[in-house]
Write a structure and sequence with these properties.
CATH superfamily: Gcn5-related N-acetyltransferase (GNAT)
Structural class: alpha+beta
Number of domains: 1
Helix content: 25-40%
CATH topology: Aminopeptidase
Distance between the termini: 42 Å
GO molecular function: N-acetyltransferase activity
Protein name: GNAT family N-acetyltransferase
Strand order of the largest sheet: 1-2-3-4-5
InterPro entries: Acyl_CoA_acyltransferase, Diverse_Substrate_AcTransf, GNAT_dom
Organism: Falsibacillus albus
CATH class: Alpha Beta
Pfam families: Acetyltransf_1
Length: 151
């Protein structure tokens, strides 16, 4: 049975391995600097007001993670949660870990008195889209255009 809990310091190494699978293998992005990745994980653990990570565990194995970042909405005059990452290792998909991570993230955003939780996924990630729609998510892409600039 899959258990979800907040990421802890002892999760650093297996969490980094999963994050590298997510960043490099799944999204085909360059491998990040190891020290920067460590700093990111540890920053959320030491200062949960910027973000929090949750891990999915099956037995003794860390099999997935979700990352929430917090920001504010001026138009809603409230805090918002951004579900920036939700990832389950390929061999563990379909066991309910993704749903459990999503539920925990939504619950935590509600506990933190956020007005909403937002997220994105790649256009071709049909499996994730199916999960998000099953969980009650709505594609609001017709409302806003997403821009990004590398710095």
């Amino acid at each position: 049975m899959v258990m979800i809990r907040k990421a802890a310091v002892e999760d650093l190494m297996p969490l980094k391995e999963l994050m590298l699978q997510y960043i490099v293998d799944f999204y085909k992005r360059p491998k990040p600097d190891e020290n920067e990745l460590n700093k990111l994980i540890l920053a959320m653990q030491s200062n949960p007001s910027i973000g929090e990570q949750f891990v999915a565990i099956d037995g003794d194995s860390l099999i997935g993670f979700a990352t929430l970042y917090y920001t504010f909405s001026t138009t809603r005059v409230k805090k918002m949660a951004i579900l920036n990452d939700l990832f389950v290792s390929a061999k563990h998909r379909g066991c309910g870990a993704g749903e459990a991570l999503f539920r925990q993230s939504r619950h935590r955003a509600h506990e933190a008195d956020c007005a909403s939780m937002t997220w994105q996924t790649a256009l071709d990630n049909k499996r994730a889209q199916s999960l998000y729609e099953k969980m009650g998510g709505q594609n609001v892409n017709d409302c806003w255009i997403h821009y990004e600039i590398d710095l």
